[in-house]
From TrEMBL:
InterPro entries: HATPase_C_sf, HATPase_dom, His_kinase_dom, HisK_dim/P_dom, HisK_dim/P_sf, Sensor_HK_Regulatory, Sig_transdc_His_kin-like_C, TPR-like_helical_dom_sf. Gene3D superfamilies: 1.10.287.130, Histidine kinase-like ATPase, C-terminal domain, Tetratricopeptide repeat domain. Pfam families: HATPase_c (PF02518), HisKA (PF00512). The lineage of its organism: Bacteria, Pseudomonadati, Bacteroidota, Bacteroidia, Bacteroidales. Coiled coil: none annotated. The keyword Kinase applies. This is histidine kinase. Keywords: Kinase, Membrane, Phosphoprotein, Signal, Transferase, Transmembrane, Transmembrane helix, Two-component regulatory system. Its EC number is 2.7.13.3.
């Protein structure tokens, strides 16, 4: 019962760990996708797409990201990055078991190399993937032919990455056809080159496994012992550098090599020692090859120690994974040693028949592949000869075309020169006349420009003087009206008359100010003074300046998105826009509320202000004309009709705009935008 509870708890913990890992990967994917959406630089996008591809290896999403990365690489003509994407595509289709697609993308890598005139390490890795796919598809001769040609080319290019990939591939090809001695030579060359590259433990472990397997078959015991020791050193280094590495599985394989080695040396005690070292990692086996080789080595160990029942049980488990002549032969030997000579003889016969059948199939396939390679080479030779003849013919045709073209050009130049010479004298006189006319026109334009500048200066001077002259009597009128207002008691008719005088004086003063503002803004003589300002404080200043205009019963609201946001702006002009918009709302709102709000849109690089009221709203026929000068919503309401025009001009200087929200129907809503950076 306790055991069952322990198993359940273990499974629960394991599931939670998987779920946590899945959530982590989902969060990382979302983070990378968000960064990708904000990035336009092709190099940065490629790096992000590579990371996304690594999260979802061998999935349709991974395929989409690889293809997108290839598009980005093509934009800026990065051959190495495009070669990386082609290699990733070949690996994707290799794992999917689609040989045709692998051949297709390997051909594309070849075309790109010819176009660019160079070959990267990813190009050679793509060719290595193709050769390995052909090898496992049973096309050993074709794989060998391509791998040898590419290996020679990598040596010629002195491409270390290419030499490593193809030496490993040639080792696998020779290992598959039983040429273990040649396989070890190729793979040792790749391993020695890897020793000079730091951090490549995963690749070195892969090559070492293949070398040790061949050395054990060749009975090179000292070499295999040295390489098993090196393998275990690399396994520890890989474990320290990569958290997700399946250390237990590969460590068990290294101990299986020791077991196999000592069984061949008839050293049962040493084999048993390494069996004990391997036992704790049996639960970590997650690879069929590792399980097959480990159980095969144990079956041989049990045979050596005379434990025939255990040996037969283990070799049957090996044959359940994969039927090989070596495993069948070992079972026959176990049966023979046990005394079941009849069954052993039957199994020996099956092994011989299987080997003979495979040899015949291999011979027929090799002959077919060699014939196909010969035919292909012959066809390539014929195509090359035909191409040489075509190039020679094209060269002659091109030479003839150039001769005709040059003769035609010379004749055309001769005629053109004669026409130009005769026409030049005629144009010379006309140009002289045009020059005089141009000088006269330039003088007239200069005089007109001077007059215009003088007129503009006089207009500005006139407006400035008029402002002063009008403001002086207005200030006197307002001052004396205020004195009268103070001295007049409530209920006296004179107090009402005094208020009328003060209100109309203020309207007249606003009219003068609006005319001066629009004149200065249009002539662009008014200079904006930009500084870092607290946006909430600016808005509150505008609200304070307009609160006396708000009618009783109307609520004045303020809804900032952030109290601490700082904006680079001209405080006075920003407040002028807000005061005009709030003042307009106050004129037409008798109940409800007037709300000033702002939001920061960093994606579009602007601040969006809204002034919303619950007033009478703006009729549909007036909505497109209210921003025109002297255009008023209600002729009976006091005002100049210049406020919205001034707001629009100031907003344009802030690289924004002022618009009416036509969708809002409970009153009126104006939207004012201001750029974040000026």
């Amino acid at each position: 019962m306790k055991t069952n509870i322990t198993i359940i708890l273990f499974l629960c913990c394991y599931c939670q760990m998987l779920l946590a890992n899945e959530n982590f990967l989902k969060q990382r994917q979302d983070s990378l996708c968000a960064a990708l959406g904000k990035t336009t630089n092709p190099k940065n996008r490629i790096e992000l797409l590579k990371k996304l591809h690594e999260i979802k290896l061998d999935t349709p999403a991974s395929l989409k990201w690889i293809q997108e990365a290839r598009t980005e690489a093509r934009k800026i003509n990065l051959q190495e990055e495009e070669d990386w994407t082609i290699r990733a595509l070949t690996i994707y289709y290799y794992n999917a078991g689609k040989l045709d697609s692998v051949i297709h993308y390997a051909a594309q890598a070849d075309s790109l190399a010819k176009e660019m005139g160079t070959r990267t390490k990813y190009y050679y890795e793509t060719q290595a993937v193709l050769c390995q796919n052909l090898l496992w598809a049973g096309q050993q001769e074709k794989a060998s032919d391509i791998a040898i040609r590419q290996f020679k080319q990598a040596k010629k290019d002195n491409n270390t990455g290419g030499i490593i990939s193809l030496s490993e591939t040639l080792g696998l090809i020779n290992q598959q056809v039983g040429q273990d001695s040649i396989a070890v030579t190729y793979m040792t060359e790749g391993l020695e080159l890897l020793a000079g590259i730091s951090g490549k433990y995963g690749r070195a472990i892969q090559i070492l496994n293949s070398i040790i397997e061949s050395e054990l078959r060749l009975q090179r015991f000292e070499d295999s012992r040295k390489h098993i020791k090196l393998l275990q050193e690399y396994l520890i280094k890989r474990k320290e550098s990569t958290a997700s590495f399946s250390y237990g599985c590969y460590y068990l394989l290294s101990e299986a090599y020791y077991i196999n080695l000592n069984v061949q040396l008839k050293n049962a005690a040493e084999a048993h020692k390494h069996y004990l070292l391997a036992q704790p990692y049996e639960k970590d086996i997650d690879d069929d090859f590792v399980k097959h080789f480990y159980e095969y080595s144990l079956a041989a160990y049990y045979k050596l120690t005379g434990q025939f029942a255990q040996a037969l049980d283990m070799i049957d488990r090996v044959l359940d994974i994969k039927v090989t002549p070596e495993a069948m032969k070992l079972k026959a030997e176990i049966l023979f040693d046990k005394g079941d000579t009849r069954e052993a003889a039957i199994l020996y016969r099956k092994v011989l028949e299987e080997n003979e059948s495979r040899n015949v199939e291999t011979f027929i396939r090799q002959i077919s592949e060699l014939r196909a390679i010969h035919d292909m080479n012959q066809l390539e030779l014929e195509v090359k000869e035909l191409r040489v003849k075509e190039l020679e013919l094209e060269a002659k045709q091109l030479q003839l075309k150039w001769t005709i073209a040059l003769a035609t050009l010379f004749f055309f130049i001769l005629i053109l020169g004669t026409v130009i010479y005769s026409h030049t004298n005629k144009l010379k006189n006309e140009l002289q006349k045009d020059k005089q006319a141009l000088l006269s026109s330039e003088e007239a334009l200069r005089i007109a420009r001077d007059h215009a500048e003088e007129s503009d200066r006089l207009k500005s001077l006139f407006l400035s003087n008029m402002s002063h002259e009008i403001r002086t009597p207005l200030n006197a009128i307002v001052g004396f009206a205020q004195l009268l207002d103070i001295e007049t008691e409530e209920g006296d008719e004179r107090k009402e008359y005094t208020k009328i005088i003060m209100d109309n004086s203020a309207l007249l003063l606003n009219l003068v100010n609006d005319i001066l503002d629009i004149s200065r803004l249009e002539s662009e003589r008014y200079r904006f003074s930009f500084a870092e300002e607290n946006l909430a404080e600016c808005c509150r200043g505008a609200l304070t300046s307009t609160e006396h205009r708000v009618k009783p019963g109307v609520e004045l609201r303020f809804s900032p998105e952030s109290e601490d946001f700082v904006l680079n702006t001209d405080k006075l002009r920003l407040q002028q826009v807000l005061i005009n918009l709030i003042g307009n709302a106050a004129k037409f709102t008798t109940n409800g509320f007037i709300e000033l709000a702002y939001t920061i849109d960093k994606a579009k690089g602007l601040v969006r202000f809204t002034v919303t009221d619950t007033g009478c709203g703006i009729p549909a026929e007036k909505q497109d004309t209210i921003f025109e000068r002297f255009e008023k919503l209600n002729e009976h309401v006091q005002g100049t009709g210049l406020g919205l025009s001034i707001c629009r001009i100031i907003a344009e200087r802030f690289e924004g705009e002022v618009t009416l929200d036509k969708k809002y129907t409970d009153g009126a809503r104006f939207i004012f935008t201001h750029a974040l950076t000026l």
